[in-house]
Design brief:
Elements (H helix, E strand, L loop, with lengths): L2 H25 L2 E3 L13 E8 L2 E14 L2 E12 L2 E12 L4 E10 L2 E9 L3 E8 L2 E8 L4 E3 L5 H9 L8 E8 L4 E18 L2 E10 L4 E6 L2 E7 L4 E5 L2
């Protein structure tokens, strides 16, 4: 095959790809995720979810809003997992304001007695992450210009609060920048509010849920009567289901 034919073929493929992207953005435009404030959850109330990996129950996770004062909130999350005889405990704390602007975050990971930690501080222009792993400490920095949220991909509490606080309309797509400590950087997350409710099994009961999908991390969230009753991470084959 002649070189010019190869080049023409590559240009054709690139052109088709750009056309598809243009069509998607035009036909299905995204808008910024807008937050209305932290929902009125009782301080000290514990909300728990079962933790399944490949449909096998391996543990549980919970979250509690432990403090709410002068529009500053403190959220504490706990996760306990046992898999292949190994025990993993995670304790995290996030301090944020009424619009979810993060102020400080810490995560303590206990894996069979081995302790690892992540601490994240937000200054006026930087996100500073200090990671201690196997006795070694590494510091990562990222630019911070505001309008960046913080969440954890596998802790349902962060997601439930965030999505309950968002202005969402059926069939619409939303985008927001989120710093994920385990990834050590800012991710652009894209949400789609599925206009078609889905029926799922929750603790032996079939219920019809509103579904919100996130494409960057391959997450799905199921809401029923103002509560998130299930969260799925399809990329890692994890399912979190509300414990009554």
């Amino acid at each position: 095959m002649k070189r010019i034919q190869v080049v023409a073929g590559i240009l054709l493929i690139l052109g088709a790809t750009l056309a598809i992207e243009w069509y998607t953005e035009t036909r299905y435009p995204t808008q910024d995720l807008m937050l209305t404030g932290v929902p009125d959850i009782e301080v000290g109330e514990k909300r728990s979810f079962s933790y399944l990996h490949e449909l096998e129950l391996v543990g549980s996770t919970s979250y509690t809003l432990v403090e709410r004062e002068d529009n500053i909130h403190t959220l504490v999350c706990s996760t306990e997992v046992t898999n292949d005889g190994k025990r993993l405990e995670l304790e995290s704390s996030l301090i944020f304001d009424e619009l979810y602007n993060p102020i400080d975050y810490s995560l303590n990971v206990d894996q069979d007695g081995d302790i690892n930690q992540i601490n994240v501080t937000f200054t006026y222009n930087q996100i500073i992450s200090t990671i201690t792993f196997s006795g070694e400490t590494v510091t990562l920095t990222d630019d911070y210009t505001g309008n960046v949220l913080l969440t954890e991909n596998n802790m349902p509490g962060f997601w439930e609060l965030l999505l309950l606080s968002a202005e969402l309309e059926s069939g619409e797509r939303y985008v927001v920048d989120v710093y994920i400590p385990q990834g050590g950087k800012v991710f652009e997350l894209k949400f789609y509010v599925n206009p078609n409710p889905q029926t799922i099994s929750v603790n032996g009961e079939y219920i019809r849920c509103n579904v919100i999908q996130e494409s960057t991390l391959d997450l799905r969230f199921y809401f029923y009567e103002g509560r998130m009753v299930q969260m799925r991470n399809d990329d890692q084959d994890l399912t979190f289901t509300l414990i009554p």
